[in-house]
């Protein structure tokens, strides 16, 4: 069965997830990555991807992002494709406004998703609490445990958008005592997946992933799984019940974190070993999940492919 993985906007981290899924799927699945500026299709914009799908053999279109192909999914369905949407942020309009920190963006996104999902065959969600919106699967990743490079300092890494909801101001206020703060992406440390990987390959890295509001998922959490590094997370982390047995997790952002950070660096080897063990177990679970999902799609849509 042909699967088209579509990332047609600049949503952080989704290209990496799509790349990893292509490595996870077994035969008889053939996975094509349709990303902006993708090599196999020379795509320069989202409309080129949409036209490519209209001309392509019928298959399963996996929409990773809320882009043009999502907006025009009605035509993909008429073409005969089985359309699956990765529903990253199931939420009420009020919740979207709060998370986006924009009234207009929150309202527009809610209206857009409400009407467009009517033309989708099925949705995937990445938080088990949202199973009412679609089928629950873990975000895909392939573990990459590199041999650490020597470094002069311990590192606290802030990864992703610098939002108030992600306690960025709290991160900036940390005193660099016994560790160095790094923000990525940035002009100093780069913007690409390769540059991000190089930061994770440095020894003694802890990732800052402390949300101060409920949220559905975090690609940063998956990056920690992928590279087997410990992280600091709040009580709003959706994986909290499992992470507490594998990571040292902070559950209150009101405390002074410097002492907790020093403690984690002092026990870093054990924390990283636990992180890698958890990562491998999750990888085997999600690999089975995704292959089973597409087997189900293939059986239900066999008459159309």
Description:
The chain is α/β, with parallel strands linked by helices and 305 residues long. The chain folds into 2 domains: 2-136, Rossmann fold (3-Layer(aba) Sandwich); 154-282, Glycogen Phosphorylase B (Rossmann fold, 3-Layer(aba) Sandwich). The chain has 12 helices and 10 strands. A 6-stranded parallel sheet has the order 2-1-3-4-5-6, with helices on both faces. A 4-stranded parallel sheet has the order 8-7-9-10, sandwiched between helices. Helix 7 links the parallel strand 7 and strand 8 (179-184). The chain is globular. The chain starts with a strand and ends in a 5-residue tail after the last helix. 37% of the residues are buried.
Structure, briefly:
By secondary structure, this protein is α/β, with parallel strands linked by helices. Helices cover 40% and strands 15% of the residues. The strands form two sheets. A six-stranded parallel β-sheet has the order 2-1-3-4-5-6, sandwiched between helices.
- Biggest beta sheet summary: 6 strands, parallel
Structural class: alpha/beta
Which regions contain 5 or more consecutive residues with pLDDT less than 50?
Answer: none
| Number of H- or I-type helical stretches | 12
State the shape: globular
Mean pLDDT: 83
According to CATH, what is the topology of the largest domain?
A: Rossmann fold
Strand order within the widest sheet?
Answer: 2-1-3-4-5-6
Report the top-level CATH class of the largest domain.
Alpha Beta
N- to C-terminal distance: 7 Å
* Count of discrete domains: 2
Secondary structure tally: strands: 10
* Beta-strand content bin: 15-25%
**Can you name the CATH architecture of the largest domain?**
3-Layer(aba) Sandwich
Order of helices and strands: EHEHEHHEHHEEEHEHEHEHHH
The helix fraction, in percent, is: 40-55%
Question: How large is the radius of gyration?
Answer: 20 Å
């Amino acid at each position: 069965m042909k699967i088209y993985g579509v990332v047609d906007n600049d949503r952080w981290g989704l290209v990496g997830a799509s790349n990893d899924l292509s490595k996870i799927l077994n035969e008889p699945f053939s996975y094509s990555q349709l990303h902006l500026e993708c090599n196999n299709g020379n795509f320069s914009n989202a409309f080129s991807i949409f036209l490519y799908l209209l001309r392509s053999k019928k298959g399963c279109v996996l929409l990773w992002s809320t882009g043009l192909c999502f907006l025009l999914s009605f035509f993909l369905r008429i073409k005969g494709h089985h359309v699956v949407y990765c529903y990253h942020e199931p939420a009420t309009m009020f919740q979207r406004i709060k998370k986006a920190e924009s009234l207009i963006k929150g309202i527009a996104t809610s209206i857009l998703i409400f009407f467009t999902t009517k033309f989708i065959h099925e949705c995937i969600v990445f938080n088990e609490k949202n199973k009412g919106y679609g089928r629950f699967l873990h975000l895909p990743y392939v573990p990459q445990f590199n041999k650490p490079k020597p470094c002069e300092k311990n590192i606290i890494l802030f990864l992703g958008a610098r939002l108030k909801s992600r306690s960025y101001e709290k991160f900036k206020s940390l005193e660099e005592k016994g560790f160095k703060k790094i923000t990525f992406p940035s002009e100093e440390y780069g913007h690409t997946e390769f540059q991000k990987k190089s930061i994770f390959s440095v020894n003694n890295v802890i990732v800052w992933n402390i949300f101060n509001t409920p949220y559905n998922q975090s690609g940063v959490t998956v990056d920690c799984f992928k590279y087997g590094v410990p992280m600091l997370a709040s009580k709003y982390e959706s994986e909290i019940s499992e992470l507490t047995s594998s990571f040292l997790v902070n559950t209150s952002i009101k405390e002074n974190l410097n002492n907790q950070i020093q403690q984690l660096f002092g026990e870093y080897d054990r924390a990283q070993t636990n992180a890698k063990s958890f990562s491998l177990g999750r990888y085997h679970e999600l690999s089975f999940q995704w292959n089973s999902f597409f087997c189900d799609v293939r059986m239900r849509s066999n008459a159309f492919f």
